[in-house]
Task: structure prediction
Amino acid sequence: MGKVIHFLFCILISNSILSLAQEDCSSYNFRNNEIYATCVSLPVQNSNLHWNYHPTNGTVDVAYRHTGVSTSTWVAWALNLNGSGMLGAQALVALPNSNGSVQGYTSAVTSYGTGLQQSPLNFVVPAIRAERLNGDVLIHATLVLPGGRTSFNQVWQSGPVSNGAPGAHPLGSDNRNSLGTVDFITGQTGAGAPVGGSLLHRRNTHGVLNAVSWGILMPMGAMVARYVKVFKVANPAWFYIHIACQATAYGVGVAGWGTGLKLGSDSEGIKYTSHRNIGITLFVLGTLQVFALLLRPKPDNKYRKYWNIYHGGVGYTVITLAIINVFKGLDILDPEKKWKHAYIGVLISLGAIAVILEAFTWFIVLNRKKEEKQVNGAHGANGYGRSHEQAA
Result:
């Protein structure tokens, strides 16, 4: 039995070694039998970088290879001379054409709303070409390294092609982590901080503000109005608690909405239409609720019941849209799964509390009506008896 286990273990180890060997970038054969002295497998997006460094003239021949690319996807690899991430990157781009060929060109990224338009780089690129081979896209280029440097920050990306031009790349974790360092002499590479910098920070701030305001405080304020006011002892405290929750939610939500507008203006060409439209709708309905509060009729006014219907209907619409939009925002930001799980946990907790309070509220209301009916019935019987005796 021991020999069998040992034999199976050996097979497992052998298969693992073969698998690693097959994934080794140095085993890749180029179409024209090019040979590159150094290669590295980049940590995300199924990409490899191959190169030959020529110290005599300070140039490097590179081949960036992105595997498993569809015919409607652009890919790019870039050096960033003075920073990290996308802004300031000097990119080599491979753009698929309608006839199945791939166009290689250079593009200097000067803003977050870049369309990767063709433009010269901050260093000389004497030659560049791109090709598709067995589902892989390759960019071949010769770079004249600037200032005698050999160590740089690098970035690589991929995204959809829209109307024959590069569209905005996704914001998933792989895309945010597609950066690092490369040294063309030592062959060493390293990981970098997630792509995005201050823009990503503002996206996260926008998400947190809106999730807390529209997605958490608004439902809590509605629960206070529906369930706390049933207790006579809580009147009128429930009203002020409700107003405090909703006013805070609206104020924080306006701040989140403002950051969203700023993000939109700073991210030209990047559009999330449904998320934006729902956000605008939430802002409009939330503002209407604020003005409706100022026009609230008194409890004995004959129009008060219509105001109550309007106020409740708009309020529940806002909560529903807010929850939908929070999930849309989470899909856009694509943070670690724990954040989506945390928000789902908050919603489940609020939902469970609402179910319990709903049952308790109906219990109190029905008992109160029953008591009132008994009291009214007793008064009616006593009144009838007294009038009968007086008539007699």
